[in-house]
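Allow me, if you will, to draw on your knowledge of protein folds for a short while. I have a record of one protein: its chain in single-letter code and its fold written as discrete structure tokens. The full record is reproduced below for your convenience:
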Amino acid sequence: MRRVVFNQKGGVGKSTITCNLAAISAHQGKRTLVVDLDPQGNSTQYLLGAGSDELDTTLADFFDQTLNFRLNPRATADFIVATPFEHLHLMPSHPQLEELQGKLESRYKIYKLRDALNELADDYDVVFIDTPPALNFYTRSALIAADTCLIPFDCDEFSRRALYSLLENVQEIKSDHNRHLEVEGIVVNQFQPRASLPAKVVQELVAEGLPVLEPYLSASVKVKESHEQAKPMIHLDPKHKLSQEFVALHDTLARKYGA
């Protein structure tokens, strides 16, 4: 099972959702891989902490290899690093991804990530792909490589407007490149049940028949502590309300797709 977490709007919690769901998957014993395609590297920093500054190999090296023919190319597994958490591995990001994007696009390397993950199919039960907040080469590569798409949504009108465009873009990728791609659901993030506007916006999405997932993820300052300590919530404070919401969301997805 390959899930891409994608929204063209920044600040909606893509990396937080990616890493926490992946950490729960690994905590439950599944061989789990996170692919961090965002040049900002938030998922890489979240999972590795200070270790993210000492990496010998990253996704930038992987994509650079696709641009330069070699008689003995490195295997995809060589671009994967272990995290401090059992069963959880990472293909880390690097700022150089930004520089490589134009070359990759012009030389039509859009299927290389899909091919790489196919190569790893027997090694991992679940793959989570974090993406940049833009519909660019990397997000298209991710959508082509994925089985499903999770869409973070942070309960404001700007996110709502962006959502419809995003759904159209996913449908276009499905039609042109990946007929098996499905929108797995909309993940409501930083939800404040006592505030009238978030509840109204979410209920309107539900009334429209959009696949809004439950539970909604609560707004919490605890997640900032989680980022600072480079510990997903399940490891920082498993009894916290937000941790339990992540577990319930993960289990909902696992029951739906068996992974």
The chain has a mean pLDDT of 94. The first strand starts at residue 2 and ends at 5. The beta strands are 2-5, 32-36, 81-82, 88-91, 126-130, 148-153, 182-188. The domain at 2-257 is CATH 3.40.50.300 (Rossmann fold).
